Amino acid sequence: MASLAALLLLVAWNMSEVHHFIGLVRVAPKGDVFVLGTCFVLTVFFDMVIAVSVGFVLAAILFMRRMSELTESRLELDASREGGSMGLPAGVIMYEINGPLFFGAAQKAMGALNAYRGTDFRVLIIHLGRVPAIDATGFVALEHAIADVLRSKKRVILAGPLPRPHSIFEHAKLEAKHVGLSIARDLPAASRLAEDLMSSEGKYALV
Length: 207
Hints:
The protein is α/β, with parallel strands linked by helices. It has helices spanning about 1-15, 20-25, 30-45, 50-70, 105-115, 135-150, 165-170, 175, 185-200, and strands at about 70-75, 90-100, 125-130, 155-160, 180-185. The termini are far apart.
């Protein structure tokens, strides 16, 4: 038994790949090191099943946090305002989202949009041309933000959604559900539609 115990210790030591473990701890991000250390401690003092279960949950939380950090947003004003762009008609602002709209990212992006809801504008363009994917939480957050803007008697245009988000919008019948919402195939088409909305004083043009 003593010889078998020594053999098992030697096998466990070789399987642990100590040099690789130490290298990961030195160069990996703090979040990865935390997950690795937690799984290691749980495996040694408790059970591998517990370690794998806890590690899976921690890795999922870490993934959601990183996705929220990757997603960025910015507001662009019309040409009549300081810092505005010549590409937008007067009374129109554009809110651009870059990155996937997942759980944490959706709350962050839509929270920033709500901060600009009181801005004096008549048409809001939400540019989604760089949003490759959107989950259920992201869709709900986006829909709530759209509904809040429409309740203030303003217009909303979704510009350039990629195929996957666009299929979700079609399946949910987003345009039919929210009166005052339009979906344009790209940003130039959205800009033209915004000009038509401004010139016709609320009458909608089809893209």
